[in-house]
Amino acid sequence: MSKHELENVREKRTSRRIRALNLTSYTPRKGDKQEYIVSIGRTLDVSEGGVKVETHRKLENGTELEMDIAIEDKIITAKGEVVHTEELKNGLFGTGIRFTSISEEDRTSLR
Question: Which fold has domain 19-96?
Answer without folding.
Answer: Thrombin, subunit H (2.40.10)
